[in-house]
## 1
Amino acid sequence: MENQELIKQVTEKAEKWLTPAYDAETQAEVKRMLENPDKTELIECFYKDLEFGTGGLRGIMGAGSNRMNIYTVGAATQGLANYLNKCFKDKEQISVVVGHDCRNNSRKFAEISADIFSANGIKVYLFDDLRPTPEVSFAIRHLGCQSGINLTASHNPKEYNGYKAYWDDGAQVLAPHDTAIIDEVNKVTVEDIKFQGNKDLIQIIGEDIDKIYLDKVHTLSIDPEVIKRQKDLSIVYTPLHGAGRVLIPASLKEWGFENVHCVPEQMVKSGDFPTVISPNPENAEALSMAIELAKKIDADIVMASDPDADRVGMACKDDKGEWVLINGNQTCLLFLYYIIKNRIATGKMQPTDFIVKTIVTTELIKAVADKNKIEMLDCYTGFKWIAREIRLREGKQQYIGGGEESYGFLAEDFVRDKDAVSACSLLAEICAWAKDQGKTLYDILMDIYVEYGFSKETTVNVVKPGKSGADEIKAMMDNFRANPPKEIGGSAVSLIKDYKTLKATDAKGNATNLDMPETSNVLQYFTEDGTKISVRPSGTEPKIKFYIEVKGEMGCSKCYGNANAEAEKKVEAVRKSLGI
């Protein structure tokens, strides 16, 4: 019965897309779905409207309210324009930045959005071609805009596109603006969308902003002398067909690196991502061509950025000369270790300096911060929360770096989203610093494990697509709350943090409040042996994520194999306990 009711609802919703307000191509696609006896596709395309999650609006491209198309993008832009005109009604000229990545339809969606903003009296700075997400964030602040958007689905498969909305501080939209924008978007009918732009209010920007941004990124170099000594460091870089190709090689050159090799096949701009299964630098497969090139030329480091160049993935040689991937937790750890250690060594560290990590990112970062007496803050997953901590302390404290396990890092405060342009440049400097001591990046990581303790982090993604999947994910979270585990992986649970109730409960049932800006559907379990498990549904993809961190000890830099093998056993025991 329930399924029949759902089919009735989506059918009524879809039939509204057969009016003249929608173009002929869209109407034909919707008609085909309505006439298909199998209603699965119709339900998937219309059972809900796309919503802003941790990464904004994101979905598969196609016809329907739950798909990325000119109407869902148009409604989002019209709603955002309406909200901006409400919030800044006393401002003589409201302005926004519009950027996009390499994805299919990204330029089209960007130009349509620019038209809609301008039709609503808002000045638009539209990038002339694809650009990294962090540059869009930078441009909002630099040009004094009230908002901005970037058309991108980050590292998602090629079927996806997305829409990141930013506020006047260059950060992705937070409460109360996020829900207020959704309310405005929900009020928009297709007839309300002003598709006819005002060309007088659209200004094309490009190389002028590139230069200012790259010069600012260059100020992040902590030890330029080490780069001068190691300017021949052999670097292999791939943009995975995306926006990194525009600025990352140029940034490396400006920092002084003279031996940069780009993977030629992947320097080609393409939303089809023809050389990879998925353009995600977290996946080993995405780096395979870069590693092949690195083997051929005996490179020192491999780095890859995702399609909108906000995340960086990397690989380096281990102590046996084999190429190994460095995961997101290790990446964040390496960056913050280098920044802290070298700011102290060069006398740049100030008592007001602070770093930020997300709650699901490795606790080893806290060990590094504590030992070096640096303030570290924990925040929710998503760079908008890191940006919030920067904003709250602006003018009082200095942000020197922060990141998350999902391959995002931000070394600066003039951008308010993760930044692969500055991260790749700083990563090259870290490699140069290591090489200057006769070491590799891998050796530095081993040094950290010996000094601060060993940890192994594993993320398990349980994918549950569509409406039925969303229901399953909800049931899993409900079950964890109703029946909290007493023991995980053979170790007793000593603390449970529930960010939905903002309560931390110990093994005796004593509860304390969690100091967070709002509630979030995240559960964390801490066990007596130092294991940390975080469970959360993804805000942008149909999956539930389990972040597992297990602790160990490494007596020497050559002891990694044993420590890792022991940790693997612990991870397997944890997975067995959780049934994942």
Note: The chain has a mean pLDDT of 95.
## 2
Amino acid sequence: MISSPQLDTGRLSTVDSKLGTGPSHGLRRHLGRLDMVLLTIAATLGIDTIAEIATGGGLESLTWVVILAVTFLFPYGLLISEAGSTFRQEGGPYVWVRLAFGRYAGGLASLLYWVTNPIWLGGSLAFIAAATWNAHIAPLPAGSLPDILFKLSFVWLAIGIAIISIRFGKILINIGAIVKVGLLAVLVVTAALYALQHGVQPMDASLLRPTAGGFLTIAPVLLFALLGFEAANGAAEEMRNPKRDVPRAIGAAGLTSAVCHLLPILALLAVLPAETLSGDSGILDALGEAFTVYGPAQPVLLWGSAVALLYIVLTQGSAWMIASDRVQAVSGADGAFPQYFGRFNTALGTPLRVNMLSGVISTAFTLVATWVATSSSNSAFSVVLSVATTTLLLSYLLILPSVLRLRRRFPDIERPYVVPGGRWGAVGATVITLFWIIIGSFVALAPGVLEQMLGLPYDFGEQWGVSRLAVESLTLGTLGVLLAAHTIGYLIARGHRRVNHDGLTAEQLLENGFSEVTRTVRLARASAPEGAPRR
């Protein structure tokens, strides 16, 4: 029996490990600390939801930003810092769950984590981009052929950024993150100038008080907007120094994300009343009003802001594709998903097959969403889209507890960063973050239930356009389809493992297209304490 200390950090993080068919498939260390900070900002700072949060909660949304920053963002960052700096393999979240709970659980977590993003890209971001173009750049009638071509071009441009080598793709993502923070800074500064000239909207301090209604309206949306600290670990073996850089990058990105939610929401509410804001165009509505302080330059500045917003949502989608596609590819490489998708392209060093699969899914949702937008099926499709984009939350029900489980299974592995407070510090961080994830998931999957329990009004017909039974049937049906897809993919991959890979050494597995995660898993199984379950 190999002792646990032998599974040391050096063997866990061979950054020159291969993905593909032999030594020519090397992953290169292109991600420095600043790249990781900007990639995390690109993923976690949801500019498309800032106006929605302000619209839904008014001044109360400011309070919930502070509450969630303290009770979710901070402990969540601590947990991911420990996992990401210790288990530093490509496909990070898959590896953590795989080592903690087994291959089936790892594959389920990676599928739920990944599938949200192509659906979100094609079913949400593409529509925001088209609406922005139509309102501020040039006419683009909804549902027209130019509208469809624009959305599909947007989708495949985002996929293309994920396909190209991360050496070059990171430059586009970095620029997108900088432009995002810059545009929000312009909003805040210009709103301050506007306030000096015209005053601000009436603000009653009593409206800052958190309420049950605000809790159910704002918190789930804000929660979704804050997720993504582990995104960079999808490309962990392409980081230059993950031991040192993961915790610091998460700290910098987390602080930036909190500030860049708090101040822009305040600026939006100062310039425009919450009831006049739109979730899709609120940022540009506020900028258009605030830019009047610059006189005749207002139209040009608003046009430039619209172009910036288009680039921001494009690279925001690409950032998630870069991360989640790698997670799903490593799941395939390890045999939790069909192995066809577990290959990285030799020349590009990217999971081209998963990238293309994401593009196909995004395209399908774009076409279907465009078609149903004006049809009687619109309400039902909205329910399916809502559930499908909520699966990201569900994946954290496995990802976050894996940190505690990994501590128990591999206590002797060197951890460059550890959640403060010892065992109880980690338990506390896990419990409080899981509380928020469970609340957000329950609100999404069982809408109206908590509202009724708290005595709040909730009209299914007004909210969804269909009955409660229809919503629950579509919700459970969508989750059932995803679970079946995972199980079928797992069984197909299991047959492949039995035929092709049982009994091979770690080196032979690498030669046959497996990543470093396979070697890690084999070593982990060998070094697990006596009597521990074998998976």
Note: The mean pLDDT is 80.
## 3
Amino acid sequence: MRTIDFVILAIYAVAIFGLAQWVSRDKGGHRKDSTDYFLAGKALPWWAIGASLIAANISAEQIIGMSGSGYALGLAIASYEWMAALTLLIVGKFFLPIFLKNNISTMPQFLEQRYGPSVRNVMALFWLVLYVFVNLTSILWLGSIAIHTVAGIDQMTALVIIGVFALAYQLWGGLKAVALTDIVQVALLITGGLIIVFLSLTKIGHGDLLAGFNQLTTQFPDKFDMILSRDNPHYKDLPGLSVLFGGLWVMNVSYWGFNQYIIQRALGAKDIAEAQKGIALAAYLKLLMPVIVVLPGIAALVLVPGLAKPDQAYPEMMKLLPPGVLGLVFAALVAAIVASLAAKINSIATIFTLDVYAKVRKGSSERHLVTVGRITAVVAVIVGILMAKPLLGKAEQAFQFIQDFTGFFTPGIVVIFILGLFWKRATTASALVAAIGGAALSGAFFVADKAGVFVIPFMNRVGLVFLLTLAAAIIVSLVAPQKKDVNVVTLEGVSYKTTTGFNIAGLGVILILIALYATWW
């Protein structure tokens, strides 16, 4: 990087930090309470919700990790993005109305209202471990790889810098500081991503964008198969039709519907209509994401072939950019890392403070809870920085590592929530069976697969464990009905009717998906 690149990066850092403090400032002598800090006062507009959903989602694990997977296995990895667009519509139409009607602030809170404190405790602990030791560490590690590769900064130094900056950026303002600046972060992310795609394709096509893309499809036709056949060497990562009808649905529903750092943005909406408009915006942005995060990895096959690790693809592509442009694209990458880190940090603080600390220290003042949230954020970042290298230093494809790990738990999570939302007879025992049994089954299948006893792609494993866990939870609920009613979740007055605008937007997403899969099947 040249001086101009560092100047652009510095301008971004100062501007986004200042903007975060300004939009989240206390007005008229009002001091932040827990609703202000953790849910932005439940007043987020649709554009902030949509942008913040993407900013929380797209980070180093997508940009670096999915570009690496694009380099290794091709466009098929885009199914994670494209099917997520359809999943978002389902979440907006069927899940959000129940959450907002019941004034839900956290996912563990919903579980407590539906099943009782035991399920809340188990899942709150699980999410805290997952967010700190998988999500936080993966973003820190992959982000540090990018900064080290492009800027030449020592990787561990880079890791500390981005962790501390993301912490400081949201520490005072909470969710409001994150969500109301994410429109800038996402605009920068999309701009930077499109620049690197444009320059890489025109370089391949000797000045012609379409010629560059056509060369990629001609030279590497196997990299543009959306549905992998059994003889494909990467079939185990993306097993054919399972991306359309199998385990990917379980992964996506868990991530977009019941994941605190994602759904927290929609829970901060001022009303259901605003939340659904934000969801629709996020769905269209998801359709665009593979262009930004997968295509550069495929282009790297031509421009920087023979990489030792697929995850080096995106950082190596950035090296091809001219001064100034490199600074802008690098700032976009840093923006994605910082925004996503801030989202995770805030959600870790939210769950620990509201679902753990506030339950133990009942009667704590609002000011005290906000202070605890800030302390929790600091501790989470310190742990993430210390554990990033030990956990991810040897991973070949970090994105697949993350999917494999979360796949142990997502089947049980989806069973617990789906039954809790839509089946009144689901019991506390059935939820615990789903949570513990789902993880145990996943572990057993994983060990059997590694031993060669029962070889099964992880996505198929997720689908199979979901069906087995669902059956077990239903049987437990029927055989041993709830003796004491603990369900205080109400469906009365919940309407699944959506506006004409949301319906038209949803139809557009479906038609685009049909066209994409028909073209690249």
Note: The chain has a mean pLDDT of 88.
## 4
Amino acid sequence: MYIKSQPDPIRLEIFKNLYQFIAEQMGIVLQNTATSVNIKERLDFSCAIFDSSGLLVANAPHIPVHLGSMSESVRSLINDKGDTLKPGNVYLSNNPYNGGTHLPDVTAINPVFLDSCENNPCFTPLFFVASRGHQADIGGITPGSMPPNSTTVEEEGILFDNFLLVEEGNFRENSVKQHLSNHTYPARNPDQNLADFKAQIAANERGVQELRKMVSQYELDTVQAYMTFVQANAEESVRRAIAVLKDGSFTYKMDDGSQIQVKVTIYPENRSATIDFTGTSLQLNSNFNAPKAVTQAAVLYVFRTLVDDNIPLNAGCLNPLEIIIPVGCMLNPTYPAAVVAGNVETSQTIVDALYGALGVMAASQGTMNNFTFGNEQYQYYETICGGSGAGIDFDGTDGVHSHMTNSRLTDPEVLETRYPVLLESFSIRPDSGGKGKYSGGNGVVRRIRFLEQMTANILSGHRLIPPFGLNGGEAGKVGRNWIQRQNGIGENLDSTATVEMKTGDVFVIETPGGGGFGQIS
């Protein structure tokens, strides 16, 4: 079939939606078949499809920090196992130095081959599909695998690096179990890990089936050509958005004293931009280092949000951007740096620093308020909403997950049924958003009472540094973490803390508000 060098506009729209539909179908299967609260209730997962070279084509609107970095995982697999990829194989990866975000986010990747090998080598994948799910526990020094005080990646859990999970259709259960247990800090609930891995396998299989169905309906050349067209269309959309931007720079300090420094240079003649992170703090001894793939995901997210067109987030969005991230800084650390907070906390700071440099939006709460608790029997993880920042012509929003996360909170009934805790209250935190011509959104207050003794951890930011306002707008209020013991005594906690909770103790998390934009006239 002859493919034109320019896409048919109607067909382009059809294929854009078809590719996204496949990723959405994968997500539905994953949610329906998973057993963990993390995936089934909180929707802390992402699904996407990739071309033969591992470049992102389309995704469902899941978690931005996953979606912008998954391509690195797929390309790592191609580089590592390219000659040995076979139909029916599924690979697991969570290596933060090969496209992973942090260890709890485990990616299952399927190479996609056609049923018929006519005109195509049988062992050359034509596409890839992948699903990334946040595991409730993947080992490490604290239950929930989000340790506040880890200093190496080994302390954060089990590392999978292009691990063969399914070999030509056979699930390698014993090998996976052995891998989960053969570690200084083994996984606490391997059966739950296995159940979620199987759900990811099912999700990927749906993606494989849908891509094969698409090829049989439209022919391979057309499907592959429109993958390229969809990426080119996204590139053009980002170039149009860049054309109206101005140069800018921003330095944003974090609670631990480290800083993100970014300079954005716009080149109007070819509608491109350079994003330079030179001047950012060196690699940290803490776990607030963000893997390079996470930094790229944050940049990709920001420039995608500046586009008005309805385009899928994909590799084309990155083509107009040159991203400079010095090796050995906290946004491009070297092994074995700890990274668990870099994915969830530092990624948010990168986004706000970029919006600050571009002058388009005040800071949002700038943290995911990562709360984990557990023991040998139970492990739970959640991120908690806060205020979003105000912009040039809009107010911020109260109590919302913003920017690099897009997950839910567990329904109170499910939380209290599955875990020995009581959600005592969950409310808006009044007057925590920064005032301005447009006001920042308010944070929330979440109080959880423990009905059993457990270890609880908080990994958060903006407990010391307030989310900034822009153009005369006020900063949002900082967050606060504290314990109300059963005897009435209160204990203040730092941005990151591990604490032993006794029966009757209440863990209180007050999340930050977003910054305001513009002076009040």
Note: The longest helix spans residues 190-218.
